Amino acid sequence: MIKCSISDVKQYEGQEVLIKGWLYNKRSSGKIQFLQLRDGSGFIQAIVEKSRVSPELFELCEHLTQESSINVVGRVRSDKRAPSGYEMDVIDVVVNQLTEDYPIALKEHGVEFLMDNRHLWIRTERQSAILRIRHEIIKSAMEFLNNHGFIKADAPIITPATCEGTTDLFEIDYFGESAYLSQTGQLYAEACAMALGKVYTLGPAFRAEKSKTRRHLIEFWMLEPEVAYLEHEGNLELQEKLVSYIVESVLKNRILELKAIGRDISALEEIKIPFERMSYDDAIKTLKNNNFDIEWGDDFGSPEETFLANLYKKPLFITEYPKHCKAFYMQPNPNRPEVVLCDDLLAPEGYGEIIGGSQRIHDYDLMVQRLEEENLPMDIYKWYLDLRKYGSVPHSGFGLGIERTVAWICGLDHIRETIPFPRMLYRVTP
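^ thats the sequence. predicted structure below, dont judge the formating
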């Protein structure tokens, strides 16, 4: 007998296999029972025919309950009507635990109830499909970077100061001194890039921003590549190649999951490089021409980003924002110092910013000037200034928000479904 996962049953058509999993759902039509199984890798329907199994086994299956853990032996056969293309005819079932009073029925529940039971909600077909797509996004992003000579360099989560120049920090007591949960691994990635050339960090980031919008989490994950000797234009090209690769990988490897959540796959098939580009100046003109109350120098909110992104079917770069809108470390345009060599990459279909990137300041004196302008503590940033003091070179990088990318690729209404256990303004459990 072959022990296999549901995702691999296609390799064993006509053979007997053992699947260890859980009963997701069940229905009966008299002499036939239809068991929907899940094992973490996927879902499959197992058919129990009364005429082909013992009376004891048929009765046992009649009493199986939702989310009971079971081992099922069956013969795999193809079936074009099945979502995965395969079903199995049951030969034997062993019950590991018979579940009682499972709280999440396969019906509509309120969001707060589901969030309170998030540890169980993630077992449903839709939620598990989203989390498998999330895995594919992270795996493919790392695969792309690894294949292009990047080194993974881990950044600390506990830091001595802000990286983004904001006050939205979680302060902690670090043995009698103040420290903070990291907002980004970028500054440390810059140091590693000066040692290793091309690096990326992947880890959690924390923002104490009191936001309740569908796009914000308090704790989220960021992928942050950083490259020595890379300038603004090369940075844009790297971003679009990475995002295109991610989308292609999801379409190739997670098509069943995309179908399970009802995603419009044709919209993702439009994601080909090059992406669309628009300067901040042109974006302001476009918004003003469409009756937005906005002036040059204002930052964009969700309504502005959504409108601009909906002009195109592909992601849109907005480039060269005013200096005062952006972080202290961004390189000014040498021909126009009031704007910086930066970009926000907006996902189509109204999903807004998924990447923020820039060329970094590499001149020591200019970095000192910017720190002073932002009233940031020079002693805390001494190590960061050293990067501009000892062998400084032009360099660039960006941060890709994992959850916002998942929301876009999955076509989700709210970011709370993009991470196993979301942390939001009024939710820190389970």
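The CA atoms of residues 74 and 90 lie 4 Å apart.
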